Amino acid sequence: MNAPRILVIVGTPFAGSLNHSLASSYADAARAGGAEVRVVDLANDAVPQHPSVRDEVRMPRTDADVPLTPEVAAYVADVDWADHLVFFFPQWWGSLPGALKTWIDRVFVRGFAYRYRPTGRLWDKLLTGRSARIVMTMDSPVLWNAWVYRNAPIRSLRNATLEYCGIKVRGVTRLAQVRHSTGADRERWVRGMASLAATDAESVRPRERSALVAA
């Protein structure tokens, strides 16, 4: 049986962050559990340029279309490779960091992640068979975040992006009041990521491999 393929996305532009420690713990434990792991680190890897024309948010269909840039094509290939995606990011202004949002805009493109049908209002979810996990850090308390912000970044990423494209979200972890956390709190959170990774490495089932889908 093939090993599960896990893509870890660290969605902060700040190197050496708590999210990096969490992601590193997860990746190490997933590898130890037998999974193949790739890491996209937006503090060190290229953040794609914000799209400026419509063609940059869809797969090229003809030679006349705007081609994917080399870094975007590599990121698309990473998502296509993965059975399971794990997102680590801090909540900024009640939303996702701009680097992660731009990465999603450029990578989850029409013709790869989803495809509109010629008639009606339905669409095809082209990333079905994959799963995901979301880990978000934040300074606000959990109840404040739910009441005032309505868990906006989680709902946006889970409902309007991942599940829209057919990716089933297996779990969401919110680590709250980071600014007031202690060293012991952070160590506990880091250990918790290793536990989640061990679970995912054992339970994620490799999907059938297929070529990239174009609209």
What does it look like?
It is a single chain. The chain has 215 residues and is α/β, with parallel strands linked by helices. Helices cover 35% and strands 19% of the residues. The chain has six helices and seven strands. Strand 1 (5-10), helix 1 (18-32) and strand 2 form a beta-alpha-beta unit. Helix 1 (18-32) runs parallel beside helix 6. The longest helix has 21 residues, at 183-203. The protein is globular and about 55 Å long. Keywords: Oxidoreductase. One of its GO terms (cellular component) is cytosol. It holds the Pfam family Flavodoxin_2. GO terms for molecular function: NAD(P)H dehydrogenase (quinone) activity.
Instruction: Give helix % range.
Output: 25-40%
What's the pLDDT, averaged over the residues? Answer: 94
Distance between the termini: 31 Å
Overall geometric form? globular
Looking at the structure, the CATH topology is: Rossmann fold
Strand content: 15-25%
Overall CATH architecture: 3-Layer(aba) Sandwich
How would you sum up the major sheet?
5 strands, parallel
Could you state the order of secondary-structure elements as H and E? EHEHEHEEEHHEH
pLDDT < 50 runs, ≥5 residues: none
- The CATH H-level superfamily is Flavodoxin domain
Radius of gyration: 17 Å
CATH C-level: Alpha Beta
Q: How many helices does DSSP assign?
A: 6
Indicate how many domains the architecture comprises: 1
Sheet with the most strands: spatial strand order = 2-1-3-6-7
Q: What structural category characterises the helix and strand content?
A: alpha/beta
Tally of DSSP β-strands: 7
GO molecular function, one term: NAD(P)H dehydrogenase (quinone) activity
Keywords: Oxidoreductase
Family: Belongs to the NAD(P)H dehydrogenase (quinone) family.
Domain Flavodoxin-like fold: 5-181
